[in-house]
Design a protein that fits this description.
- This protein has about 425 residues and is of the alpha/beta class.
- It is built from 6 helices and 29 strands.
């Protein structure tokens, strides 16, 4: 019978040191071309310049009649109708005009457009009392973009307007940093698949659903792998299968110090473990390893530890891999509406709701902070960052709040 080891082989490192190790070792994914329909939220890898002017032809900005501005003949004979998307083989002479639609190219010989509401047409002749100067109601060549003009710089995050601009330039597969693919491995003999009755001692798998949903919220692609029992061989095969198809692997459970916590030994066998404990609560057994060049993050099995770990560790890592510069949730200085008990050995992420009242921001706990109580995160809009080395906090004490429902920014901030 082997001895049971009760002391971890991994030193417990500060949270900021763990994040620095991750930022130094994990790089953005290599850019490649992605279809325009799939680039929303991705980062442009190379600047885009207009190959030619836009528009490439002078176009009408109104429904009306294309005319020669120096032509004073009344009425003018209507030679035809110029619609968008075609070019009539017509050249205007004095005393003539062409009915024209918005966006249509100006016929040869014309240099202005009279709006239709300022005209009367009868029997093929157009009458107007409105003179126009050259260029009136005309969008000239290059009015939107000049040839060679830089349209979008590298590192641009592509939203609807940017995607529309790329489409107008005919760029159907821009070069971007791709969406990270994330494999999710939920471990544990105690996990029961959804849809099946619980046997004695079993619990339902919620962690894989937590992680796949969280991954989708930031535009990455999750892959839920089959549930893994607590066996070294099964874990080894599952991790190798995951790294073969993913850019990042997330495991939940199996990273503590029990006899069935086998994730760390398996990762040591397959690759390099860079850290195995972090001084945070919840989530102390957080593990980071590399297997065949693919980063693997091992999260504890308690649901709150999983979701908090995703929020404060995995989310910024995935945004780094996607080359997004905005990686941090905004932070605010807040005051406590009640006291909080805190063990000073670790940095604590305390679940809370933050609201603005009486000219300042106030934080209220969501109740029991047990790492198995997922309800403590339902409705929470903040994680109170209670520093390592600080003991119990009294009512009215000031702390930093990470605003987990607000968009990321480039540096943690304290918005008004």
């Amino acid at each position: 019978m082997s001895d049971f080891v009760t002391r971890s082989a991994y030193p417990m490192i500060p949270f900021d040191d763990a994040m620095e190790i991750l930022s130094e070792r994990i790089a953005p994914l290599a850019p490649h071309r992605v279809p325009l329909d799939d680039v929303l939220g991705l980062v442009l890898a190379k600047e885009v310049c207009a190959e030619g002017p836009q528009p490439s032809f002078a176009a009408s900005t109104m429904d009306g009649y294309a005319v020669r501005a120096d032509d004073s003949v009344q009425p003018r004979r209507v030679l035809g109708e110029q619609e968008a998307g075609q070019v009539l083989d017509i050249t205007l002479q004095p005393g003539t005009c062409v009915r024209i639609m918005t966006g249509a190219p100006l016929p040869k010989g014309s240099d202005a457009v009279i709006p239709v509401e300022w005209t009367v047409e009868r029997d093929g002749w157009m009458q107007t009392e409105t003179p126009v100067e050259a260029g009136r109601n005309v969008r000239p060549v290059g009015a939107d973009l000049a040839a060679g003009q830089r349209v979008l710089p590298a590192e641009t995050v592509l939203g609807p307007a940017e995607i529309g601009l790329l489409a107008s330039l005919g760029m159907v597969e821009p070069r971007v940093y791709p969406r990270p693919r994330v494999a999710v491995l939920a471990t544990g003999d105690e996990l029961a698949p959804q849809g099946q009755p619980l046997l004695p001692g079993q619990i339902r798998d919620s962690n894989s659903y937590i992680l796949t949903s969280a991954i989708r919220t930031i535009g990455c692609t999750p892959q839920r792998m089959p549930r893994i029992a607590d066996s070294r061989e099964g874990l080894r095969d599952a991790i190798l299968a995951a790294v073969a198809q993913a850019d990042l692997v997330l495991t939940t459970g199996g990273v503590s110090m029990g006899t069935r916590d086998l994730i760390k030994p398996v990762l040591e066998e397959l690759g390099d473990v860079h850290f195995g404990r972090v001084a945070i609560q919840p989530g102390k057994p957080l593990t980071y390893a590399t297997v065949r060049g693919v980063p693997v993050l091992g999260l504890p099995g308690n649901p709150v530890s999983t979701l908090v770990g995703f929020e404060v560790v995995v989310r910024p890592v995935l945004r780094l891999m996607a080359r997004l510069q905005a990686r941090h949730r905004p932070e605010r200085d807040v005051r406590l509406r009640h006291g909080i008990r805190h063990a000073p050995e670790r940095l604590e992420f305390h679940r809370a709701t933050v609201e603005y009242r009486e000219g300042q921001w106030w934080a209220t706990t969501t109740g029991s902070q047990s790492s198995s109580r997922l309800l403590s995160l339902v409705g929470a809009n903040a994680l109170l960052r209670i520093p390592q080395g600080v003991g119990n906090l009294a009512e009215g004490a000031r702390v930093r709040a990470i605003m987990i429902q607000e968009p990321e920014c480039e540096e943690p901030s304290c918005p008004d």
